[in-house]
Amino acid sequence: MNTANQARVSDIMICAIARMLQDGETVFHGVSSQMPMVAMMLARHLHAPNLVHLNIPGGVNPSSIKKASYSSAGADLLASAEAYFPLEQVFDLSMRGGLDVAFLGGVQFDARGNVNASVIGDYHKPKVRLPGGAGSAVLIPTAKKAIIWRTKHDRRTFVEKVDFVTTRGNVWRIVTPLCVFAMKDGALMLESIHPTSSLEEVVQNTGFEVKYDDIRFTPMPTARELSVLKQIDPFDYRSSEF
Amino acid sequence: MNRKLMSLQEASALVRDGATVALGGNVLHRAPMAMVRELVRQKKRRLRLVKTAGAHDIDLLCAAGCVQSVDAGFVSYETEFGLAMHYRKAVERGEVQGHEHACYTVICALRAAASGAPFMPVAGLKTGDLIEANDYFQVIANPFGDEPVTVVRAIVPDVAVLHVQECDEDGNAIVAGPKFEDVLMSRAAKKVILTTEKIVPKSKMRMRPDNVDIPHFLVQAVVPVPRGAAPCSCEKSYEADFKMLEQFVKMKTADEIEQYVQAYESKDRSGTRAGGNW
Which PANTHER family does the record associate with it (chain A) (predicted)? Predict the structure, then answer.
């Protein structure tokens, strides 16, 4: 496929994330979330025109994300939106079971789906104070599906045991620059390997035993997807974490 | 006659050492930076900061040694400008207590305060180490059912410091664009300090009372400060000042921080010197 040569890891990740989203779902992203923001926009332009894009500033379905350069929590997402539905109401929605998908980050993950976004070392005397889990501790347990993305995949990120459990369980997918993990029966399983990576690379860079049913590869972005990405994200915010 | 309209220096006197201070805005947007800088100039100490997601405001106050604790879900400059290193180092050195929340638990703690309740249930907080590590979370029996429920202790800010686009001299204020937690903070706090891009005539507010987000009777101080959120953004008025933020995140020494804050002093205090509106 000629498009394959042009696709970068960020494009592969974005398209993989976009395809996880279904038409009509309510989907939330928070701060520092350019990648899910672009993926949500891509899904809305392709297979999920009725997806509901929710965010911190409260802009329901912003028509443009082109101004969200340094922040995914700015007023621009409200200025081009259909309605105002601010953060506290998004949380309430999730608490009562009405949020389909939440996008969240984290710094350490283990094979049982424990997420650490808080500290390295002791909580009260941390070796490293991380930014914090933002909404993770209430959204991961309550959203129907929690998708985590992380642009680092190494043995310090995917560890045998996290230093601190900011939250746990109900992680649906984890998307990395090398692969996609899925939670099955309480354990992370390798779902697919990006065509730009390999099983060996995933295993070498993962601090726990990589388990899988069979070897699958993440589909490459299509020409259509890449063309829409150029249109909705001309300044390449989707690569800002790389 | 009008005792609410005052200078930045006068308003900062409402913030005592050791006060619990709720900061308006969210990450790099509409943070009350002019008042934050004044708190640094006035050498406030042992402040207990409250915000769902903070960035430059919390980082600067930590850099200047003003802070005892931070109750927040997230403290970082987002992707472009990186980590809040002064906050991070201050917590790692043990100078500042990092009280991590789940953003929503800050909202619930403020809702408790706003409604006069001692605590608030948080339906979604069911698992994880945050519950055990922090005494402001407790798991209690549900008096109406079987499943236990996690509650968060009320956070009653002594003062909420909020930056708005428009306010009249009595303190009726309109927040343009995202309101973030500002309106809730104005209800939860014992006192409210407003800094405002501009003072508008009372008659203008009377024409659209349904648009007023914060009514005057909740407000103790009104300070006109054009560009009072800079270098953070302020919807309808200005974008974030990337150059200043880039410079700041590289600063390490106390001297650099002091110079940074001093460089803003004249501008920060200009709104009440000009003499125009007040």
Answer: ACETATE COA-TRANSFERASE YDIF, CHOLESTEROL RING-CLEAVING HYDROLASE IPDB SUBUNIT
* Residue A132 at interface with chain B, using a CB cutoff of 8 Å: yes
ipTM reported for the complex surpasses 0.85: yes
Instruction: Nearest by CB to B240, from A31, A70, A166: name it.
Output: A70
Closest among B205, B118, B200, B209 to B155, alpha carbons compared: B118
Q: Where are the domains of chain B?
A: 8-118+154-272
Backbone angles phi, psi at B81, to 5 degrees: -110, 5
pLDDT at B275 over 80: no
Token match 């929605």: residue?
Answer: A93
pLDDT digit string, tens, across residues A4-33: 456 899 999 999 999 999 999 999 999 999
Closest to A176 measured CA to CA, from A242, A100, A87, A92: A242
Contact between chains at B180 and A86 (C-beta distance less than 8 A): yes
The answer to whether the Cβ–Cβ distance between B92 and A132 falls below 8 Å is no
CATH class of the B8-118+154-272 domain in this structure: alpha beta
Q: For chain B, what's the residue count? A: 278
